[in-house]
Amino acid sequence: MASLSQSPTDPDFVQNPYRFYQYAQNQGDVSFWDEYKMPAAFSYKAVTSLLKDRRFGREIPAEMQTAATIELAPFYAVEAHSMLELEPPRHTRLRGLVLRAFTSRRIKQLAPEITQLCHELLDAAPSEPFDLIAEFGNKLPVVVIARLLGVPDSMAGQLLAWSNAMVAMYQARRDAEIEARAVSATQEFVDFMRGYVEARRAWPKDDLITQLIAAEEDGEKLSIDELITTCILLLNAGHEATVHTLGNGVKTLLECDTSLTVLAPDSIVDTVEEILRFDPPLQLFTRYAYEDITAFGYDFKRGDQVALMLAAANRDPNAWPNPNRFAPQRQRRTNTAFGGGIHFCVGAPLARLELQLALPILFDRFPNLRLAAQPRYANLYHFHGLEQLMVAP
User: Fold this and answer.
1) Structural domain tally of the chain?
2) 54 is in which domain, residue-wise?
3) Which of 56, 101, 241, 371 has its CA 20 to 30 A from that of 256?
4) Exposure string for 97-115, b = 16+ CB within 10 A, e = fewer
């Protein structure tokens, strides 16, 4: 098995990780990534297989669990109730309760509101070159989630600040300062949500928090800690994926001089899927091995972690003809941008809806939209998104 060295914070890698992925795929399905000190699956076959293999999971094996340091305890106390970090039976119960409130029907009902919000944000956009991320990309998903939860629009900026601080804990450049900001944001976010949940218990409304309170399965309801964590997860994950995909997608459409016909009603679904395949917002996701097992030439021991390279799988030439070409008309197949298996992103339908609505509206309002500066990706790995996207309307 190959052993590969690549710093995830190297500036060249941050701007274009796909060259490394291509090199890694030439070495085999799975290689050992020195900087992460774990094997990494780079091929579409390996990533999709391991995402669904129940011998691997997100929750750290019991005998390996250690108490968080006092400094980081507030952050990991929230993580302890996140369905993203749990396995059955707790994951099954939590996800089932959330899906009772976060239904596809309710998401579809948001379409008129998302459409109106897109127009309102673009109405307020400057007439001179502006940062599309700051003026549109950041605001759209956080306001949608806030409204879904029943939180006032006026809180959107604060929710975004808390979310950014917490999500930074998953970046390769994580340091003591990032950890301190994350803990502070977690404590403030939890205090805010606790008060909001208690208010909704007393005065129910037509919002997701009220529905989560009411959701029940086999006589069980979400505890207040589980409910708070779920709301935080929906905001953090829902915002992060959409803002990066929106920015990456507009950048790709403009750089590739793509015909706006790909944004027509009969093409937009395929175009969004190609954007998610071509430059996804999340590059990797990890799993733990739950037993000693040999898979794709690697001998896993119980407790070993493996990095599942979602973005690499989406550029695998064995799965996608000419994978480094942006081709909205290509024959669609399942990409790995939102993961897979039991941890497939619960917010994926909402993210897709936002993108399918926002992109046509943006280019309809600004048909001559062009880049006003060379886009640069931010040092966020293992996320992948732009520092800013300066455009001229």
Assistant:
1) 1
2) 3-392
3) 241
4) bbeebbeeeebeebeeebe
* Tokens at 90, concatenated: 């707790």
Please state, in angstroms and rounded to a whole number, the distance separating the CA atoms of residues 187 and 55. Answer: 34
Integer Cα distance of 254 and 205 in angstroms: 42
- Burial annotation 3-38 (CB, 10 A radius, 16+ → b, else e): ebebebeeeebbeebbebbbebbeebbbbbbeebee
Amino acid identity, position 300: F
pTM above 0.85, yes or no: yes
Model pLDDT for residues 94-111, shown as the tens digit of each residue: 999 888 887 888 899 999
| Structure tokens that stand for 319 in this block | 């799965």
pLDDT digits (tens, 9 = 90+) for 245-295: 999 999 999 999 999 999 999 999 999 999 999 999 999 999 999 999 999
Instruction: For 347-364, give the DSSP string.
Output: THHHHHHHHHHHHHHHHH
Say if residue 317 is preceded by a cis peptide, omega within 30 of 0: no
